[in-house]
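User: Modeling request: complex.
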Amino acid sequence: MLWPNLKSAIVWDVFALTAYATTSIIFWYFGLIPDFATVRDRATNKWQRMIYSVLAMGWRGKANDWVHYERAYSQFAWIATPLVIGMHSTIAILAAVGKVPGWHATIFGPYFVCGAIFGGLAMALVFLIPMRSMLKLERYITLDHLEKLAKIMLLCGLLVTYVYTVEFFSAWWSENTFERHQFVYRALGNWSFAFWIMMTCNVAIPQLLWFKAVRRNLLALMAIGIAVNIGMWFERFVIISLSVMQDHVPAAWDYSFSFRTFDWFILIGSFGLFFFFILGFVRVVPVISIAEIKAHLLKPNQPKHHGGNHE
Amino acid sequence: MSKGKQTAKATTPIVAGYYRDVSRFSDACGAATAAGHQPEAFTPWPVHGLETKLGIPRSTLGRPVLAVILVGFALGLYLCWYTQYQSYPLNVGGKPYFAWQTFVVVIMETGLLLGALANMGIALHLCRLLPDPNTRLINDRITDDTFALVLPITDGKDAEGLSAWLRAQGAEEVQVLGVVDKSPAEEPAHA
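Assistant: Request completed. Predicted assembly structure:
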């Protein structure tokens, strides 16, 4: 019997993605169980009650159950952390083991992990800012929270900037003709606009986050979040497409990438799928953890705070 | 205090005391354990420190999950060894058929995936959680803003005595459930 080649990074990626997706989904669901119980007990409609009752798995809030629940929740975090790093660095290895100029770099593992956190935080800001206003969550998702997100985003932006610099330095220092050519092509070739959009959105614009006034300005944060998302899209485009456009086969260099109808379908379709799931989630599931927020805001023996007005 | 609909049928006769103030509730739990009432507590969110007052031991979830992760690592290693070395040795560029370094990702991911599934499964088992379309609590507000301290009516104790004790411990409302000879099981016997 012939087996998949487990020495191949493509097969590693299957394992990494499967483990990461499965763990993320059950972690997410497990965290919602007490909140599903809260919704179940507030439901006014018979069917709603039945559906949330099944989802809540008979949760009753017994003190013994909370002890197991909290332990399991923290263990999920311990298990998920190496999975996050494993998933993103495995995808990076998938590219790095290839001999394509622009991919063959040992820095790819941490590069992709930083990039994922950077893009993820930007996406979180882009969603949180309108959502907290539309769902009236200003008391729970405060400006302080958003400012902290912005600070982590700035840190990730600096790490990504460092990686971009190291990539150019390595290409020059390696004295490898193809590697050097690839990076000159990125910055000055016929697709250089993609590279410069990436640099503007991921390197220049996030520097505005050094200023407190910007970090506490919702519109500015939203705009920076959108810019970083665009920048991260172009980063993947630059890494994947530009690298294979000018690789070891100069005969293929004349064939440039063109964005065709099906590419548009895939792009629009992936946006559609994403918005379908996120908006469906917002519609039927508590968007912030009810139990955790109550535990935090209503701690005994401390002045009544109730989230306060941090604005 | 507004109350949820009372529909639960308690199998063992119980007296439930309801609290809105978490400090008072927490103190009452400690007092109930000290008085030997075998209390059970229900809370809308995890109240830290309550486990000490109720004598609830540390969760036993850690070691079984760790064991599953380690077994998962071993299974991942076995999968790699069996498929790449034993069953169908595949020569890739003259490299060794079996070199553990090549299989680190597969081994790690297999172990952690099984660990995550075990973490979920064992936690659900320990909490006795299963999908149930007709869950009914003794009081719907337990998942909202009300804490319940439940005392079983065992031999030698009576509902009135326990109700009075709960009220003395600051319960804002007391309810007797499942006392068949005194009131119908579904009667919301507000004290």
